[in-house]
Amino acid sequence: MSKSTISTFELFALIPDQETARVYLESRLWPRGTTCPTCSGQDRITTRKGGYYRCNKCKLDFTVRTGTIFERSHVPLHKWVYAMYLVVTARKGISSMQLAKEIGITQKSAWFVLQRLREACGGKTEKLSGIVEVDETYVGGIEANKHESKKLHLGGGPVGKKAVIGLRQRGGRTIAMPIDKTDKETLQNAIYDNVELGSTLMTDEAIAYKGLVFLTHESVNHMAGEYARGPVSTNGIESVWALLKRGIYGTWHQVSFKHLDRYVDEVAFRLNAANVARHTLDRLDSFIDATDGKRLTYARLIG
């Protein structure tokens, strides 16, 4: 077995129950000791039974779940850890049906668990620099294959689909997000928001990328059958789209536009903090660190 991963059996040996999972999460989320999620205080905290604590300064009773994606969840913490393990080790993700079978909960609960985990995958990241590949893709069903009642009758191509822009730094991180339009203003604003000035941009020949300032811009002409010209290519970001669409077609099957941003965040997280080059436990640590401050209620999720 690869030295960069651990098996499911080994994970269960490390975290066999709720108590060991609680201790593990506390060590990651409170590295300096028990911390109040409201006032961040540590000096006036009383320990109670069952993993509960009380902050005598702000009169708050709390657990390690408070203020995280685990808050008010009835799913045991060791099942949450196993769900995170599956997300970071499954190259094309895991479906709610499969997760329900793996950890013994209903499919509806498993879907909510996965959406909370995807919420943790998002958040503001540092800008990319160096050589950055940029491309856009479309997600959604083919118009001709849709049921007659769902066809828009506005033509083919991107009709009825949602655009996603992706930026990948060579040897570095990936940023991706759904966008409403693929016009020049939208694409270039996304680039300026996420790429350091002075970087080198690699794109295709789309007109929307023309006129970028304070960035070196190289492009390949896909229309002429050119996919690489020396170091100039967009093959890296296109591999991200391959991973996203394999997840949609082979695992999730159907992704609503309403929740598409979370699925895209999951794919980007798996390429960044959950990269297979890192040890599984390091990937889990990064995932747990990202859960803090990311509470997602069911009402907000479906509202």
General description of the model:
- It is built from ten helices and ten strands.
- The chain has 303 residues and is of the alpha+beta class.
- It has two domains: 8-123 and 273-302, no CATH class; 131-271, Nucleotidyltransferase, domain 5, CATH 3.30.420.
- The N and C termini lie far apart (44 Å).
- 27% of the residues are buried.
- The model has no long low-confidence stretch (mean pLDDT 93).
Element order: H for helix, E for strand: HHEEEHHHEEEHEEEEHHHH
- Number of alpha- plus pi-helical segments: 10
Shape: globular
In percent, how much strand structure appears in the residues?
5-15%
Strand order of the largest sheet: 6-5-4-7-8
What is the total domain count? 2
Q: Which segments are poorly predicted (pLDDT under 50) over 5 or more consecutive residues?
A: none
Helix content: 25-40%
Distance between the termini: 44 Å
- Report the structural category: alpha+beta
Biggest pleated-sheet summary: 5 strands, mixed
Query: Total strand count, please?
Result: 10
User: Average pLDDT value?
Assistant: 93
Radius of gyration equals 22 Å
